[in-house]
Design a protein that fits this description.
heterodimer; A: 371 residues; mainly alpha; MetI-like fold; B: alpha/beta; D-Maltodextrin-Binding Protein, domain 2; 6-stranded mixed β-sheet
Chain lengths: 371, 344
């Protein structure tokens, strides 16, 4: 009897309705009757929103023209020529057109320094930090304000649009983080006066709305100063925003500090580390990593809060978009909707980028072996 | 601690360094001297109001209020560009003028007794007579506010607008219903969607809002004006000479319109034999000297911005998108309120 080798039949393909898109859809979208109903409802909603949105933004929109007459069709969508005509204003504000290259340089150099700084794989971090925190602010200051090195002086009241939004937000972000960390450490300090000062500062600034801080800086301050002596308005706002944001930042950082187990402090003490070394080498790296979402949340909030500078007469991106609604050569029913859509899109791009980067950073810094 | 101390020292240094300029304390009665010395006029305008102060595509300010400041600059420097505009919010404006942040405010501010007497400011002159009015759909067949009996009105909450409308309807024995909204945009949207028969706010704003309706031509602004909103520039109290200069800057443009002097014919008008025109142009007398200006002060104003009629028509007149008629802002000789005292 010859030996028979048993060869299994080739496996039959999985039932057609459990693989591929159909299988996935059955699994995830149409599991039960309720699921199916919800899926169809959502699909209808998405299609409806896309239809209305694209219809407004593209199909019925106007794309060229020199004044309001371009945007007065019977069925009118977005009025993009308005954005096109005002684009320079929205980015630079009333910064003189001849001098706008200076703003471009500041933007470009900022991007050039920031991108490698944010990428963990790129080296030269120390040099980059010195460049970004030392040289770059000085460069931006002299470049933007002018009045030296043969550059024409540009008054800050002429700044506007995205330029002001970024200046206020970046100063607020860069200023508030170190100040907030110091305040948080101070609040947990054993020295009673330091603690009282920090608690007082944090509670006062957190207890009032940002509008109040800006308003005090802009309206009340001049009354206390001698006649004719005037702080630069933008500078007043920058300081106000940075102080305000640092109070919030302090509380976020304090949350991280409190999450560090006592054992970490004791271990550091056992190694013979002093207060500053313990804080710098053991506590802060762990605490800050824990509160990255909170920190970025504060940054995003701050970025959007910059729109409040409008009430003290500075025109940030949203402010200058609104300002140009009043130009009667462009007044149409769609002008302000288009303008708001544009401003919302720009804000969304910045906030979304910050949010994605924070998620990336959390993953990158994670020491959790299960991830 | 050390770090904190360093930080606070740094902040203090920053604060000191940012004192942009430190002009001499502005004593009362010297505004003109200070402005001349500084080399430009500092003018507070609104944060955007169609026809009054609004930026064009290149960010240059335009509008009636803007032209007013340009006229003052032209009178002082013979150069309408020597003026720096500071957009002020409604809340900031009075502090800005009191603290010397600006020399003059032309910010569609209503001249009221409270503001004139209690806030440390003076209103030298009225450069635009505004007032509350109504807008209705043309096909409603309403041609006068008196026909609005039983109408539903859209307006803004808690403003004098609402009270004025109530007063007007009550005093005329008419029925009405008010639908008030928080913001102007909401009121306009409600009116646009047919929620109300009429929309009421100040006349100049009615024309501006009309452009935002889906079919502006289907709506009309009724002729009645039911409240007084005299809009004018304001200056710090206590500098009578500066007050005079601002007042006569406006009167020069009104007088020029009355005598037919425009920015185009001003060169020919210099040789006019009309004594009124000769005095206006500085050919006879020395009226500019008394203001601390040159004899040609009015010529400089009119060459730069034109007479009052030109300013009006260029910014808000019937040929602009706003399309506002002169109405009460016509010259007194044409039944309006714009009246300049004699220059003599």
């Amino acid at each position: 009897m010859s030996a028979k080798t048993w060869t299994p039949k080739p496996a039959r393909p999985a039932p057609a309705n459990t693989v591929g898109f159909v299988g996935w859809a059955r699994e995830n979208l149409f599991t039960t009757k309720l699921d199916s109903a919800l899926t169809l409802l959502c699909a209808a909603l998405i299609i409806y929103v896309l239809d209305v949105g694209l219809g407004w933004a593209i199909v019925d929109a106007s794309f060229s023209g020199d004044d309001r007459n371009a945007c007065l069709k019977p069925v009118q969508g977005a009025c993009w020529p308005f954005i096109d005509a005002k684009f320079g204003q929205f980015i630079y504000g009333r910064y003189p057109e001849m001098e706008r290259w200076r703003v471009d340089w500041v933007f470009a150099l900022g991007l050039l320094g920031l991108v490698p700084l944010l990428m963990p794989t790129v080296g030269f971090k120390r040099a980059n930090v010195i460049f970004m925190l030392g040289f770059y602010p000085m460069f931006s200051f002299f470049m933007l304000t002018g009045g030296s090195f043969g550059l024409a002086a540009v008054d800050t009241s002429d700044w506007g649009g995205l330029l002001v939004t970024l200046v206020v937000a970046v100063t607020g972000i860069v200023g508030s983080l170190p100040l907030g960390i110091l305040l948080a450490l101070g609040r947990r300090s054993d020295l009673p006066i330091v603690r009282a000062l920090c608690v007082g500062f944090i509670e006062i600034f957190r207890g009032v709305p940002l509008i109040t801080v800006l308003f005090m800086a802009s309206v009340m301050l001049p009354l206390f100063l001698p006649d004719g002596v005037n702080f630069d308005k933008l500078m007043r706002c920058l300081i106000g925003v940075a102080l305000f944001a640092s109070a919030y930042m302090a509380e976020v950082v304090r949350g991280g500090l409190q999450a560090i187990p006592k054992g970490q402090y004791e271990a550091a003490a056992a190694l013979g580390l002093g207060y500053w070394k313990t804080t710098r080498l053991i506590i802060l790296p762990q605490a800050l990593k824990l509160v990255i979402p909170g920190i970025v949340n504060t940054f995003i909030g701050l970025f959007k809060d910059t729109t409040l500078v409008l009430i003290v007469g500075l025109f940030d991106l949203l402010g200058i978009v609104q300002l140009h609604f009043t130009d009667s050569t462009w007044a149409t029913p769609e002008t302000h909707i288009t303008g708001y859509a544009f401003a919302a899109f720009v804000f969304w791009v910045f906030c979304f980028a910050m949010s994605r980067y924070s998620i990336f950073m959390e993953k990158h810094l994670s020491t959790d072996p299960n991830q | 601690m050390q770090m904190l101390r360093k930080l606070s020292a740094g902040l203090l240094l920053l604060a000191v360094a940012s004192f942009a300029s430190t002009p001499a304390a502005e004593a009362a009665g010297q505004t003109l001297e200070i402005v001349k010395k500084r080399g430009h006029l500092k003018c507070g305008v609104s944060q955007g109001l169609p026809g009054f102060s609004t930026p064009d595509n290149r960010g240059n300010w335009t509008g009636i209020d803007v032209d007013f400041c340009k006229a003052v600059a032209a009178a002082i420097f013979n150069d309408a560009d020597k003026v720096k505009f500071t957009p002020l919010s409604a809340k900031e404006r009075f502090t800005a003028i009191q603290s010397g942040e600006v020399d003059i405010i032309a910010r569609n501010t209503t001249w009221s007794m409270h503001r004139d007497t209690a806030l440390g400011v003076d209103f030298p002159v009225v450069n635009y007579y505004d007032g509350q009015g109504f807008m209705v759909r043309a096909d409603l067949g309403v041609r006068s506010a008196r026909d609005l009996d039983g109408a539903t009105l859209c307006t803004n909450q808690g403003t004098t607008t609402e009270l004025n409308a109530a007063d007007y309807f009550r005093s005329n024995g008419m029925q009405y219903e008010i639908v008030a909204f928080e913001k102007a945009d909401e009121s306009v949207a409600a009116y646009n969607s047919g929620r109300c028969d009429a929309y009421t706010t100040d006349h100049s704003a009615l024309y501006a809002q009309k452009l935002k309706l889906s079919d502006p031509k289907a709506h009309i602004v009724l002729p009645e004006v039911i409240s007084k909103e005299p809009l004018g520039p304001l200056v710090r109290q206590g500098d009578a000479a500066w007050n005079d200069l601002v007042r006569w800057t406006h009167y020069a443009t009104v007088a020029a319109e009355e005598f037919g002097v425009t920015s185009k014919n001003i060169s020919e008008m210099k040789s006019s034999s009309n004594p009124s025109i000769r005095r206006l142009m500085g050919q006879d007398g020395s009226f500019g000297d008394n203001l601390g200006l040159s004899k040609q002060w009015a010529v400089h104003i009119i060459r730069a911005v034109g007479n009052y009629g030109e300013i009006f028509e260029r910014n808000v007149g019937v040929k602009t998108p706003l399309g506002i008629k002169r109405g009460v802002n016509a010259l007194w000789t044409k039944g309006g309120l714009q009246y300049a005292p004699p220059i003599r």
